[in-house]
Fold:
Amino acid sequence: MKLWKRTVLLMLVTLLCALIPVGALSVFVTGKRSLNNAAETYGRQLENGKALLEQFWDNSKYEQMSETGKKAYMGFQFQRCCGAGMALIDKKSNAAIENLTDYEVVGIENLGLKNENDPYAYKIQKLGKKYLLLQKVALSKPEGYDVLSVREVTELFTELRQTAVWFAGIYMAVFLIAGLFIYMMMKRTVERMEKLQEVAEKQELLMGALSHEMRTPLTSIIGYSDTLRHVKLKDEQKDRALEHINREGKRLEALSGKMLQLLGLYQNHTIQMEMTPAGDLLNHVIDMEKEQAEKKKVQLKMEYEAFSMKMDPALMESLLVNLIDNALKATDAGGSILVKAYETSGKKIFEVSDTGIGIPKEELGKITDAFYMVDKSRSRKEGGSGLGLALCVKVAEIHGGKLKIESQPGEGTTVRVVF
Amino acid sequence: MKNKILVIEDDRAISELLCMNLEAAGYETVAAYDGEEAQRLLLWHEDADLAVVDIMLPGKDGFALMEDFKRRNLPVIYLTAKDDVASKVKGLRLGAEDYMVKPFEMLELLVRMEKVLERTGRARKILTIRNIMVDVQSHQVLKDGIPVGLKPMEYDLFVLLLQNKNIALGREELLKRVWGEDYLGESRTVDVHIGQLRKKLELYDEIKTIPKLGYRLEE
Structure:
């Protein structure tokens, strides 16, 4: 399972584990309290009934009555003192003699209250969908009888159930919202982590390529210097060796310079944007490259429209110089390079096109990778490091632009920087 | 006769470095800078004794060239920047005699080349310098056609110097390769033997002492 999934799941389970006992406990406590309240109210009624009955009961009168009279007297006294919701129970037969409840009394001996003489002790009985609160107290007069109170408390339970539903609803909502938050948070964190990982991987690749790229000139430098130390060479050979050391050293220097530039761009500081006219930029760049072009006998031309753009001039210069350098490397004597700056449909475009060897179609996607070279031996001969285009892409990105490369092998290459 | 070595390497600087050293050490070299050129060279130089080949070459790469080398029965030493085990295994499986990773020590390459040449029976059997000739097979040293009596260690030392003509060898290096890793003597031993060689073979100028480095047999 993925890390973020695991974390979200774990956090939700923890939340659930915390919410369920708290909810259950609060429902239980509320229920218990309201039941106790009901028991107290009905218990007081029961106690009052008992006290009244005992007060009004005349044992001597009762003893003299006939069986029917006794029964009538008992019924009369009970109804007068206790009233609805109560029943008089004969302890011997465990049957209700007088029943003012809405229910039939059966198996009263199994009630099992904790304290027979406490009118507040109660038992809950479930009858179909109804909940009944049962309380009982023993009478001292007449002896051998109990008063049973039967009250319906279904409402309490319905209420309780409703409370529970409310709680569950609220908890569910909290749970969902918390889950959503955690999920969003994790997703963002994970995304950022993946991005970092990607950058790290890219850097690692870059470092790998760099070490490989450094190894070749180093092999030459170490090899030649070693040869100079150990081997008896002719003077011209010595010169050649020194020449090679010098050239490879310069290559390393160029490489490290480009590398530093690229690393500097990765850290994104010291970039100073200012409005610069495209014409100034082009003139400057052409000045810088003129000499090299003449040396290679390549014609270097420019065309520009008058517009200005917010840019870091030093970076943009290095971008164009890199592109022109590439064009020069690819173009043989007699060819030409055209540098253009123009605006179309709101887009500002810088373009460098040459009449050089071109780039095969299948290589187009790869040439902006650091250290990628289409023809290694050719670009090495021309002093390429394989970093130029990677640098260009980065500079264009900083300015919010893109590099578009079109090429026809044998006919030439056009690179457009579109802002 | 000199051994002929094909140097197939696309980096001009390294190619030249190899040729320079190999020629100084008494080999004849022919260089190619890409796969196709290497194939052409093979046709022109059928008498080559060994090829030192880079793997990452323009055109046909070093692995693909192996077939051509095999057809000519030419031993190959790969010399490449590819330092992963998979490439090494592939190179050796394909039939290379040896595999070396850049950056490399020239001295090590020379030793490995010598060993490959010896193994494949292509090593020079007769080594010469000025008026002295050494027959490696019969262990004979002739000066102007007259046998010279060298002690075993003196003989080994002399052959080693001859095989690395024009290349300076340190005292420690000489000690290790002539007397062996386990030898507990000191580098003075080398100086004494060198002295003997100079006297017996009259090579006072040719066996040069290089300060801080060691000795070099110059031609």
Q: What stands out?
A: Residues 54 and 80 of chain B are 5 Å apart (CA to CA). The interface with chain A takes residues 10-14, 16-17, 20-21, 24, 33-34, 56, 58, 81, 102-107, 166-168, 213, 216, 218 of chain B (CB under 8 Å). The domain at 4-119 of chain B is CATH 3.40.50.2300 (Rossmann fold). Chain B has two domains: 4-119, 126-217.
